[in-house]
């Protein structure tokens, strides 16, 4: 369980690390902040679009071997990023790393749920998802702090080493896990056609991720524009967000079994309130910390809720359904960064926060109005 959680940590921090480094990345590579955000976009596009195919094509591969291969790609990719002489090579490397990241998201939670007794499967998923909180509490702020002490290349070099260590942990601790309930590419894409509940979940994920990551990708530029935020303060803010995420993950672990719909709706409303707060009182340090704390809690609740919504919609084909979830999730991380970059470059970073409010609100409305009795068909 620890090895799989650590895997999530290194995959997520690698994917989102540019968020805390956008300003120095853009200055060092000679590109705009919006263009630097394409580092998130490139990895998200590959993770989203490639995952259903790769998961299906590897459906007969032992999941332990597959995960070790994915971690090897991650370690080499971080190393190449740290020494790449130009921006195009970095973008190409991020694309390749994205394929590995997407497959992990599709198989990681399922692997954790399989290595514990069935009655503890949901708790196992919550434990692994805590890697998200660890990444936001420790990983992304640490990357920002390392950059301030050295440079962004040092940060990615260190993450290459961490990825290699997790590779060894997975190779030597996780038991053999032959592929379970994996299906062909055709059957993967037929799932949302036949399963109404899964289809609705995927639409909600699209709106939520576009809204959340569209705004979150540009937190640093927003704070630097609206306040006199230093690197140290931004690091604290990211840590505060991560702590909130850990709390939200714990809360969600307690509430999703009682009311999955209520957990998602409540978390979404909290996220909207946090973004409104950031706009209203986010010009001073106390207001920023309060808003980011609430944002983190909300994200933790919604994140765990949408995973459990996917499981509830397709329990017999969870890995395949998660590949579609991952496709929607990561593609929308990419699109959120892209759309946010366009808004940031043309209408200012404040408009990105407003866009986040609208999109998350759409996800909340859809979840609140979706019939409780919606079930798979076909």
UniProtKB/TrEMBL annotation:
InterPro entries: MFS (IPR011701), MFS_dom (IPR020846), MFS_Efflux_Transporters (IPR050189), MFS_trans_sf (IPR036259)
Domain of life: Bacteria
Cell compartment(s), UniProt: Cell membrane
Keyword annotations: Cell membrane, Membrane, Transmembrane, Transmembrane helix
Gene3D superfamilies referenced in this protein's UniProt entry, alphabetically: MFS general substrate transporter like domains
Topology of the protein relative to the lipid bilayer: Multi-pass membrane protein
Transmembrane parts of this sequence: 28-54, 66-84, 90-112, 124-144, 156-177, 198-219, 231-252, 264-282, 288-314, 326-343, 349-366
Domain Major facilitator superfamily (MFS) profile, chain residue ranges per copy: 1-373
Protein name: MFS transporter
Organism: Streptomyces marokkonensis
